[in-house]
Amino acid sequence: MKKQQIFNSNMFWVAFAMLGFILLPSIALDYGIMESTSDEIFDAMGWSAPNLSWAWFGGLLFIPLISKIIAKQNEYRQGVFEFSVIVGIFLFVFISATIAKISLGYSIFVLVLALTALATNALAKMKIMQSDKFVIASLISIVLLIFFFIVYPTVAIFISMFYNGSEFVPTQALKIIQQPYVLRIITNSLSVAATIGVLATLFGLLFALYTTRIAKRSAFIGKIFSILPIVTPPFVVGLGVTLMLGRSGYVTEFLVEYLGFSSNWLYGFTGIVIAHTLALTPMSFMILEGALKSIHPSIEEASYTLRANRYQTFFGIIFPLLKPALANSFLVVAIQSLADFSTPLVLGGSFDVISSQIYFYIAGSQLDYASASTLGTLLLIFSLSIFVIQYLWIGNRSYVTVSGKSYRGDVQELPSTMRYFITFMLGFWVLFNVVLYGSIFYGSFTVNWGVDYTLTLKNYIMLFGQGLDDGAWPSLIQTVLFSAAAAPITAFFGLLIAYITVRRDFKGKKTLEFLTLLCFAVPGTVAGVSYILAFNDAPIYITGTGLIIILSMVMRNMPVGMRAAIAGLGQLDKSLDEASLSLKGSTFKTIIFVVLPLLKPALISALVTSFVRAMTTVSAIVFLVTADTRVATSYILNRVEDGEYGIAIAYGSILIVVMMAIILFFDWLVGDTRISRSKAKKMN
């Protein structure tokens, strides 16, 4: 009880913030606290000289003072006054630091923690969220996270369009957009995204129909499809396509000799479409397979009893019910295609797209933030437009097919012609992928693909045979560390957001959900550029550090943890939470001891998926890495740019094998847990 009283005291949090002010720097250090000299640390301390940090921390003293003045008022009015002062202090710190160009130091993090705790106490007095302080603190933390690492970077990329260095040039964005090449790359990007969106969704639907309506013993193909896009970076698929169909590819040799093809036929629109369709179809498959499994068979049975044939049932019943999933598949695939610059880099040739042009503006010889941010804004507008069109198309229509009745029934067979066509397409797809991945692994052991096919271990020796400080080891170790740090944070905040949005009702709930899902709609390329623009200057200067890479991984993958937790919570009756709360268990204890154990399989899956996605991500973090914070995918991409395809393919092969092993191990672990529970249930 005494502990609760201490944490409820405003004076405790004011003292906590003051302790941070005394012990930690208020101004950011250029080389970090471990590598800075004692003089540099002293100069960064807020108390070392008169500066704004005195006003930032001094403002906290107004909170207990106001509490004492209005002590006779009711709790609600006390909370309103206190919360208003806290918001004022927060805005004053952020705005004044931005205007004065002060990079915020470690003590400001302590200040934000104290302000969060004080705001929690104030909102609890206002009876917000039934005065549940854990939920209030979680909600404030989520809002701050979304504001600083989604909204703020997105705003930064809009503002940067109108600045040439430090000079405000309002007509600059218009001049950039009016350049002839911009219309060309916009047309290229949209044509590629639309084509891949349709093709990947079509193939994803065919293969989802196979695993749910045709397959019996071969249903394991679905698991392989689910794993492939996660463990394979898109440009590694592009490299595999190059080995098969490029200038030196064995398929191209056949096409040139017997069918009169040009040796350069692959490069451009065709190559990007082939590689992206191969890489992104499994994503569409996962979305559509889940949707097909959720359609209740009794609806099909009802159609047949009304004498509809199998084609009428499929196109009149099943296909319309798949509209949300089809729209979602198109959205995800099109946005992923728009965002990926690495595949156009490998296979595009002279066929430029927006994402690759943004990459050249940032990583090329000419650093042009204005053009990069303008094109990034265009890319964001296109992605959000797809998002909005999908929402308007689906609207508020109902697609519910599962009622409270326990009858399940059996799924009906598809028309014979459709079954044969789907089986043929899947057979061709599997064969092509086997040859593709076989080419990747075989190519990693050759001296020079297309010239000398002699088997050698040279590529692997250059990567991993020169000690831990050279070759691929530094990037691999750092990638594992960054991903291992980001994955639990992703799963934790994903669970918090899911719990609050599913179990609680409050004003702004829809806005919170939209902003969280905005991570899906914001292309990775845009996210990377926006992070550079937002965090490369005061007040938050973290560019070049491991922290910005971890934050990027967390924000990009947070919807993964959120969706996994929402799916799991949908299966848990709300009465379990209510029973815990009625026994005087706090929300924190309810989550830890009731919700978390029941969601363990879903959260482990989210944790592993987040880890693997962080390991193989490229579009967002390639702009954020430096020589000291290089990651695996950026290392591979650099090898591709240098023409060292053998080394790039070898590293990609290692990533695929390691990631596949991790996923299969945890899949076995979760599956083993479920089997053990089932056995225990039977024994009881």
Automatic annotation (TrEMBL):
Record flagged with keyword tRNA-binding: no
Coiled coil: none
UniProt KW keywords: Cell membrane, Membrane, Transmembrane, Transmembrane helix, Transport
Domain ABC transmembrane type-1: 186-390, 476-666
TM ranges: 12-34, 54-71, 83-100, 106-124, 136-163, 190-212, 224-245, 265-292, 313-335, 374-394, 420-442, 480-502, 514-532, 538-555, 602-625, 645-670
GO cellular component: plasma membrane
Topological relation to the membrane, as annotated: Multi-pass membrane protein
Domain of life: Bacteria
A Gene Ontology BP annotation from the UniProt entry: transmembrane transport
Cell location: Cell membrane
PROSITE patterns cross-referenced by the UniProt entry: ABC_TM1 (PS50928)
SUPFAM superfamilies: MetI-like (SSF161098)
UniProt family annotation: Belongs to the binding-protein-dependent transport system permease family.
Name assigned to this protein: Iron ABC transporter permease
